[in-house]
Amino acid sequence: MNDHRINRHFKTHAKLIGALAAALFVLAVIPSAMANDELAYRRQFQALDPSDVEGHLNLAKWCREQEAWDLLEKQCDYILRLEPDHAMAKVYRELARSKQGNADADDANATAPQNTGSSSPRKNGEPIRELTDEEIQILRRNELSLNRPERVPVDFRNNVLDRFWDYLATRENLGPKDRAIFNRMRPAARKAQFMLGKINQYQRMISEDAPFEDEFSSDIVIKDDPAMFRDFKNPRVSGVILSSCATARCHGGRDAGDFVLFNEHVMNDRLHYANYLVLNDYEKGGARLINRDTPQESLVLIFGQPNMTGPGTAHPTPVDVVFPNPANIKYRNLLGWISSLDVTQPEYGFSIEEPAETGKSSTP
Description:
By secondary structure, this protein is mainly α. The protein folds into three domains: 33-100, Alpha Horseshoe (Serine Threonine Protein Phosphatase 5, Tetratricopeptide repeat); 122-148 and 224-364, no CATH class; 153-223, no CATH class. It has 14 helices and four strands. The chain has helices spanning 2-29, 33-47, 53-65, 69-82, 87-100, 133-143, 160-172, 176-183, 188-204, 227-233, 238-244, 269-281, 299-302, 329-340, and strands spanning 154-156, 220-222, 283-284, 287-288. The strands form two sheets. The chain has a two-stranded antiparallel ribbon with strand order 1-2. Strands 3-4 form a two-stranded antiparallel ribbon. α3 runs antiparallel to α4 and α3 (53-65) packs parallel to α5 (87-100).
């Protein structure tokens, strides 16, 4: 009996040892992503000059890309010790704390992210906010071309096809044959173009005799970039802006003034669309950075040329020449993109300074 108990004890003990050994083997052979991130972080940190604020900010951006929130907070704390008023470091630190669930609302040095819906004005040089998914949808719906084919996937939610057709049929006295034609529209983007075109028409016709409440647009979900935004994100357009306007010593750095652009190592949709909105919103002395009516008069093109047409067309501060002349390929690519935009400037219903109201549908 005693021998049996001893054997059973040793067998149980052996199983525990085996399980522990297996766990230790896994930990030894498969290092965690966190450990890898921390090791890479330490190597990059040690390679930097201790007083190189810009280099340490780039390391903070790397931490953000890795979603290493504890390292991001640590790195931002270091930057803020070097430069207590560094706006980007404050924003990144707040993001890191939020992701870790330990944001301190009473921290006098913390700056709330700019996409909270707050209407308080942004200070010069302070980072712009990223756009929300809802705001990206508003931009996509407004910029989906109604005049040429678009090849984008579209989701129709909350039975919006039936709801829209019921409204349309009543308003325009349509019958089953018309509905059959609507049903056969392919691809889905063509249906979206038709619906948004009608909604746009009804919005322009609004009066006491023709009231219209848009209950449809927000249920038309465009899942990828329309041609206009696909072209904007192309290196031939966005790449020119990022390598000239959005550099650290221009509108992508601490001395950017009231016009700030994102220029991250990895540019996602929220950043690209935010940059577009900044460019679209900007006016100076009645002139627009992006001029849809007369593309050649867009300030984004004029500011990049040599100052040969008078002081009123020069960039406010000295900058490198981006376009030596209008025959330059970068100039022609950017001009081509602006020329491709619809002449009528859409009303998005929000700006980079004033976020869209949550749940509010836009005018297409």
